[in-house]
């Protein structure tokens, strides 16, 4: 039997509260390179909070998240920002593109922030837009795009730095069924091709069925899997 | 709701008998009450099923009562019957065209008998999602639009089952019961 590869990201005993509201109580998750995991669970079960803790957007109150063996809470603010920019890609429900920038500028942004030269960043961004079949939108601003187009541009932006992990929070939540399905296909295909791991937060079973496995959150903790004792 | 196999009605009757011995008329009434959307049971079905359960050693005759009306035989669950009921309740269903009816029967019977329906629902979700995963892969590989549309139909039904499984868990968590 071949041993499973070492996890690229692991989280243990994650607790997080917002004021008196407890969002996570001891959540844990391990992610292996190139794996696609769906985080599901009822509303308010802590799915998005867990995703934000895994992606280093939020720091947990207690518990440890490690990426390639390094604790996220041991990194300085700048280091964590850089990690999020380079090693992690983030796709949110409404795309969250910068409205003042064109599609090309939005996608090139993470590269420019990393100090890449403008023509170089623009060339890589243009390639990603082509790959996601939205090359014709290069000079279009987000307000003039459909929801599906904006989400493809957001996916291009998340993948432009060739991240190790893409985190997607309800990536199809704001789209109709068919458009959402196309955006999801694009996201899954692109992450598979670049061998990035993908963490999907979703309440949609059809989105969850795309993942290699499912992690169910309930009341801020991970529910035992089908083979585990209840 | 139409019974697709006689074993399922047998399991449901074992579930009713878990509450205590009963005669055929009680069983019919309890069944029709538990499954108001189902076609009411015919007495012939009840007695044929009881005869089969008795032959298999899952129920036994414990008493024959006669009041004003006809003679009535009271049946009780045997130890094997109790084991068989436990086995049926714990076993997840193969997702398929008739699985939904069976899921409803099993979940309601579990609630009435006090079996761990939450654990069953959790394991059934995993089985359903695995079936959806396989169909999703098949759909992604399908070249014909017609094949994809046909698979969409199956996926939509599995999705509906999954949403029902989840809602049922939420209701049980909120109420502790369906009542």
Q: How would you sum up this structure, described in words?
A:
The complex is a heterodimer of chains A (230) and B (179). Chain A is built from seven helices and ten strands. Chain A is an alpha/beta fold and 230 residues long. Chain A has a six-stranded mixed beta sheet with strand order 6-7-8-3-9-10, sandwiched between helices. In chain A, strand 1 and strand 2 form a beta hairpin. In chain A, helix 3 (103-113) runs parallel beside helix 5, helix 4 (118-131) crosses helix 5 (147-159) and helix 5 runs parallel beside helix 6 (177-193). Chain B is mainly α and 179 residues long. Chain B contains seven helices and three strands; from the N terminus they run H-E-H-H-E-E-H-H-H-H. A three-stranded antiparallel beta sheet of chain B has the order 1-3-2. In chain B, a hairpin with a 6-residue loop joins strand 2 (59-65) and strand 3 (72-77). In chain B, helix 1 packs across helix 3 and helix 6 packs antiparallel against helix 7 (145-175). Chain B is elongated and about 70 Å long. Chain A binds chain B through residues 42, 185, 205-206, 208-211, 214, 216, 223-226, 230, and chain B through 116, 118-119, 122-123, 125-127, 129, 132-133, 135-136, 140, 155, 158-159, 162-163, 166, 170.
